[in-house]
Amino acid sequence: MTSSQRQQLYVIPHSHGDITRFVWVAFLIFGLVTALTFVLVTQYTAWQFRFHPTLGSPAAMLGQTRIYWPWDVLIWIFRYFRPDSSPDVLSVIKTAQLMLASGAMTSIVFPVAYVFRRTRKLKDERNDLHGSAHWAVAEEIEAAGILPTPANVGGVMLGAVDIPVKNSGFNPFSAKAKTVYLRHSGPEHILVFAPTRSGKGVGIVVPTLLSWSESVLVHDIKGENWALTSGFRERVLKQRCLRFSPSETDSARFNPLSEIRLDDNLVKDVQNVSTMIVDPDGKGLQDHWAKTGFDLMTGVIIFVLVSDELEDSQRNLSTVQAILSDGGPVRELAERLAADKDTDADEKTKIAEGFRAVMEYIRDIGYERIGAGHCTDVELVAWKTASQAAQSFLNKASNEASGVLSTALSFLSLYRDPIVAANTSASDFTIESLMQRRTSLYLVVPPSDKDRLKPLLRLVINQVVRRLTEKMEFDETGASRSRFPHKMLLLIDEFPALGKLEIFEEALAFIAGYGLKALLITQDLSQLTKAYSRDESILSNCHIRIAFAPNKIETAELLSKMSGASTVAHTQRNFSGSRLSVVLNNVSTNEQLSQRPLLTPDETMRLPPADELVFVAGHAPIYCQKIIYYTDPALVKRQMLGAAKLIGNGMIDARVKSTRS
């Protein structure tokens, strides 16, 4: 960093020493002006008198010119300023008096002006001794790269700010201010602190969806964003709009198992899916039951994917749940084998023993396929993994096996819902197609189903991030580039409510290189740390942070620290004298520099409802206004286009019936 760049960050002026030296300079100026005045007035007066001999002997001769002592003019004034002097003499003397008076005033004004200028310069001098924090001005906002430009058209909408512009009218010095929207279309991520009912929808989410021109994945909790923005994105931006609402009958379909590749990635893909299923809150596989349930889930999912006994339409999580529950498509075999068991056993034991028969079937058919020698390498690995998982279950005691089975089933109870089962039975889109063509995917979750559907949404987002960041391409110069033609915005409202998405936290540092940009919204800092702990890296990986007035002091303190500290001057006055005196004996003032937060925590919590803070890494904080889309005619016109056409609508009834049958 150069010296000039450091000066832009802060300025600490050097000591000015004893400022009383200004008084001595003032005295010097006074003396010089006074002496010069007397010299000029004396010589002028002598010239007016034609250097008459009665003026006295000169102090020196400069050629033919007589040079008099500077104070001689005072002698002449006392000598000739008499009533009996001639009018011409009185006129010269009065002129000399006027010139002396003017010189006296000048000798006072000049030093006073000098002292005032020097002390005023010291007062106005920038001093960042205790901090240099300040609100960004127009030039700094422009340097941050978030003002409207052709490069960031169609970016994420951040806020609104008034920028001064020169008036093109008759007065070139008059200035106006116009309101512009701050926007960002770069690869960096954005985090928003916005409490409930603070205007994040009308101020950030909806304006962004009405302007972002690339693909987007939206966590749409109430379906409002679909209703307000999907029509514009479909009809104007010409995007494919998908509404995945697992608990509703008018939803597009997505089968997580259809994203599992039947190649060398099979086991890896299945294990990733199994992890998300048995760890619905992102707390990790910490107990024995979760770990053994993960192993069982992996084996059954692989069996569902490669078994010849199942139709392609049955390769989904609903079938996995059915097999773990009562045998599902292999129920007849399970019932026949269970009939050979002890009929006197209790119901819990019967269920466990019946499922053991299913596991024996999976193990035996796996060994049979492996022994036949006709399997490809992928099939060999698949059947081997499924057989080993089945055998691992069979090796457990009855009570332990029953606990493992109950644990695995508890994570799949969601797929007993016929609507959810139908919406996850097949796929109307693939994950890679989201970036191969411009697509808007809305993950719609009614608030009443938020907790119930959380595991499925976590699974979808996890698969999206993993699949789209799996491979990086490089051009002929060796520079990295995304393998997809389009970027995608991950707009995740209530991000911490989804639980800890470990892959998301880890990948946030590098997904920008794959064409993914995150816009994450949380209510406050405590909600984020509750899901990701105080050692979270979400905040540090977000280049831009936006904050509305917080409700919690922890968030307010963080925002205050992010704003920084400034150096402020304050004046102290000391008064002395008797309480009964009419006037004070002495009044002294003392100006001091001290540190003050640019915005204290309580001031942060008292931000006006229309205001917000924007922090861009490496730049001064920006105090600006929220966007209110329904006050902007252009945005209202886009919003009035309503919702897009539903994909898959009209097919759901048949899917539900087939699931119930």
From TrEMBL:
InterPro entries per the UniProt record, alphabetical: P-loop_NTPase (IPR027417), T4SS-coupling_protein (IPR051539), TraG/VirD4 (IPR003688)
Membrane-crossing segments per the record: 22-47
Subcellular location: Cell membrane
A single cellular component GO annotation: plasma membrane
Family matches, as SUPFAM superfamilies: P-loop containing nucleoside triphosphate hydrolases (SSF52540)
Pfam families from the UniProt entry: T4SS-DNA_transf (PF02534)
Keywords of this entry: Cell membrane, Membrane, Transmembrane, Transmembrane helix
Position of the signal peptide: none
Entry annotated with the keyword Disulfide bond: no
UniProt topology in membrane: Multi-pass membrane protein
Family: Belongs to the VirD4/TraG family.
PANTHER family: CONJUGATIVE TRANSFER: DNA TRANSPORT
Protein name as catalogued: TRAG family protein
